[in-house]
Every structure is written in structure tokens, then in C-alpha cells.
Q: What sequence folds into this?
């Protein structure tokens, strides 16, 4: 293996990233990850990026509206309010006093339906794997036991890297780095069962609001005849799981398999920042509970998007700049002065969009307007890069070079101040 760029983790997120970034190899003990054992009970929200993935891989799919029901007191309640959502969240994490922010009580959906895609998950895994290996063997089946600054140690050998994408759960990553982090997670006991909940054979997804009912959620199959996936808070032993299932499934129901997902319910932590030369990809790696498959596809295709942005600006800039004359130093300097003069007022537009004058009254800040002004500045900076012949790759190389200088300067200042 001659790769210098590696992905750790062979679950769906690692496969997606490798599919769109062929310069990366994968190191994983097995392909498919925990998603594979859930079979076809996974809900994939419909959206342009998920659609792109399925079409790029060539997996047949159908758009399907999943019906969602909320069960309280043994009955389907007509609507789900804040208190009931909060009750489900508290039950899921096993904390009756949990008080999340008012805007963070979503339980996958606050509505009575989920617009989703129906497809065979095994076909997606196989299609991704086939697409990854179309240009040679890029998968190492091995267990990672340590991650260093520039080297991955496995149970068999080691691999140097210049770029690393981690798709494994953040606590495991940081333990492999020998830099343990305290990230909040609550385990869930999962069970695949061959039948739906009592009296709810037509429902696709069910949330159980009552605290006395141990089950939190049941997901129906994406294909007819498949199993149902039941989720229970905490780590249940065999007897505990049997008692919890008896509350919601018919007596004749059979358990196909069960396991404990140690990171079943996570609390987003924005301080989970990856180390140098590392990218976190996916919900568990980034430790951000709201991320979905579409977000992973968007991130995995970012390199292509960056090149698209670069080329689109270059095409527009060529209407005002004679590209053929950019080897002329005087012409470059002339365009540099021109773009710097254009940039100054654009920076001022950002200030005008916010409340920066303390002696004047405040006004409501239009967040999108602020962001558009920042984009204006970015476009002029892109023009300067284009005038001086920079490429996206050179930008990133110079960014790292300048970051080394700035960080070393800061380190010395810290030492001098002690």
C-alpha cells in the first residue's frame, strides 16, 4: 500500500468518503460497520445529497413517506408537543431531570412523517465497495491499535499518513491517540424482532412516550417482510430485555439478534476538534447528533465542490482580467491594487451589517446579509489568488505553512510571558 491518505473505519461513512476520494485507502477490521447488522431498518431522510449518493453508486431506490406515531397511555396521541418530546429524550438518556436547550428537543422528526428513500442497504455497501476497488485494492482489513501524529499502528504493521479521515466514534479515536476526551454518550440496547409492536402493524416508526414503557423507539423495515428494530435505554441483560420487549411486542414474537450500542445517544460537543491533518466525518466521529448520510456525502464531495468554486470564480474573473497577461509582473501588480481597493469597502459592508457603532442605536442583524458580505470579500480574495496563479492545492499547502509559523510564534510568546 503506497497511500499517504487514510480513512479509519469501514462503516458506511468511511465507504462514502473513500468512494468520492480515490486517493484515500481504508483501514478497518470489517466492512459495513454497525449499520450492517441493523439490516434494512435504517431510515435515510430524503434529500439531494442522499439522492446523489444512491444514483452515483447505482442503487435502485424509491421515495417513501414513513408514517410516525407517538404512543402514550397505550394509544396514538394526535400531536407531539414539547413536554412529550422532552419525556422521550429524558427516557432515552436515562435522566428524568435532563434539561436540554429549548431548540434541541428534536427526536429525528417533530412531525408525523419522514420523507425517506427505500433501498436495499446491502446493495449500497456492495456498490460502494465495488466502486472503491475499481482502481485497485484500497482496503486494508486490520485493527488500528494506535494513531500517532503521522503514523497509524495496526495489529499487523504500520502506515504513515499525511492526511487522515476518522469515521470511528470520537471517544475511540481519542483513546487511540492516547488523548482521552470526556464526551457524553448514553448506551442503547438494540433488538431486531420479527414482528411489529402490539396493534401497530401499519406503522413505520413509533415513539413510546410513557416512562413506564422501557422501549423508546421501534423502526419498521424499509422492505416488506423485514425485521423491526427496537431501542431501549441503557445496557439490558437477557432477562431485562425480555421483560422490556414483553411490554411492546406480541408473546409469539422472536428476537433475531440483540446488542448494546455504547454510543446510541450522544450529546453534541463542538469542542471535539480534530488534530492537525485529521478530518472527522460522520455523526459519531464529529460527535454531532444531527448529522445524517446526506451531510457525509456533502463533506466527502467537498474537494470537488472547492474545485468547482475555484473554477467558477476563474471563469467570471476572466471576463475582466486578461488571463494571458498574468505572467506580466506589472499587470499582476495593477490587478492586485485594483482588487485590494475593491476589497476595502466590502469589509466595511460587513461592519455596516452588524451593530459595531456603540454610540448609535442597534438594529436587527440580518444573518444571511452578513454572510453574503463575507462571501463578497472571499470572492475578491479568490481573485487575488487567481491573479497570482494559486491553485486550491497551493492554498492549502501555504495555509499549513503559514499556520506553522503563526503557531510557533504564539508558542514562543507564551513561553516568554511565563
A:
Amino acid at each position: 500500500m503506497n497511500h499517504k491518505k487514510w480513512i479509519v473505519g469501514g462503516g458506511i461513512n468511511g465507504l462514502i468518503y473513500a468512494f468520492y476520494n480515490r486517493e484515500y485507502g481504508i483501514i478497518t477490521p470489517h466492512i459495513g460497520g454497525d449499520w450492517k447488522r441493523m439490516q434494512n431498518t435504517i431510515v435515510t431522510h430524503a434529500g439531494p445529497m442522499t439522492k446523489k449518493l444512491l444514483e452515483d453508486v447505482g442503487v435502485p431506490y424509491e421515495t417513501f413517506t414513513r408514517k410516525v406515531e407517538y404512543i402514550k397511555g397505550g394509544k396514538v396521541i394526535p400531536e407531539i408537543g414539547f413536554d412529550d418530546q422532552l419525556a422521550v429524550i429524558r427516557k432515552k438518556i436515562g435522566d428524568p431531570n435532563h434539561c436540554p436547550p429549548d431548540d434541541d428537543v428534536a427526536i429525528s422528526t417533530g412531525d408525523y412523517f419522514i420523507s425517506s428513500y427505500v433501498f436495499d442497504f446491502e446493495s449500497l455497501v456492495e456498490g460502494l465497495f465495488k466502486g472503491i476497488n475499481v482502481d485497485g485494492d484500497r482496503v486494508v482489513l486490520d485493527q488500528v491499535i494506535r494513531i500517532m501524529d503521522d503514523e497509524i499502528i495496526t495489529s499487523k504493521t504500520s502506515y504513515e499518513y499525511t492526511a487522515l479521515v476518522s469515521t470511528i466514534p470520537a471517544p475511540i479515536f481519542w483513546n487511540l491517540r492516547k488523548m482521552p476526551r470526556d464526551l457524553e454518550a448514553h448506551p442503547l440496547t438494540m433488538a431486531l424482532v420479527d414482528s411489529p409492536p402490539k396493534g401497530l402493524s401499519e406503522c413505520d416508526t413509533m415513539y413510546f412516550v410513557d416512562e413506564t414503557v422501557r422501549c423508546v423507539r421501534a423502526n419498521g423495515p424499509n422492505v416488506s417482510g423485514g425485521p423491526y428494530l427496537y431501542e431501549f435505554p441503557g445496557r439490558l441483560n437477557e432477562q431485562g430485555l425480555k421483560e422490556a420487549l414483553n411490554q411492546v411486542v406480541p408473546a409469539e414474537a422472536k428476537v433475531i439478534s440483540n446488542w448494546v450500542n455504547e454510543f446510541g445517544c450522544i450529546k453534541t460537543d463542538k469542542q471535539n476538534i480534530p488534530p492537525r491533518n485529521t478530518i472527522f466525518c460522520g455523526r459519531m466521529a464529529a460527535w454531532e447528533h444531527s448529522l445524517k448520510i446526506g451531510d457525509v456525502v456533502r463533506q466527502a464531495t467537498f474537494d470537488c465542490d472547492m474545485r468547482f468554486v475555484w473554477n467558477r470564480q476563474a471563469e467570471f474573473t476572466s471576463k475582466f482580467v486578461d488571463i494571458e497577461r498574468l505572467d506580466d509582473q506589472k499587470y499582476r501588480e495593477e490587478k492586485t491594487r485594483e482588487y485590494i481597493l475593491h476589497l476595502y469597502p466590502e469589509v466595511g459592508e460587513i461592519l455596516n451589517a452588524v451593530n459595531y457603532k456603540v454610540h448609535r442605536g442597534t438594529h436587527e442583524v440580518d444573518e444571511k446579509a452578513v454572510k453574503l458580505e463575507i462571501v463578497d470579500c472571499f470572492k475578491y480574495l479568490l481573485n487575488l489568488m487567481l491573479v497570482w496563479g494559486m491553485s486550491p492545492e497551493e492554498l492549502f499547502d501555504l495555509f499549513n505553512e503559514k499556520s506553522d509559523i503563526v503557531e510557533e510564534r504564539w508558542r514562543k510568546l507564551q513561553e516568554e510571558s511565563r
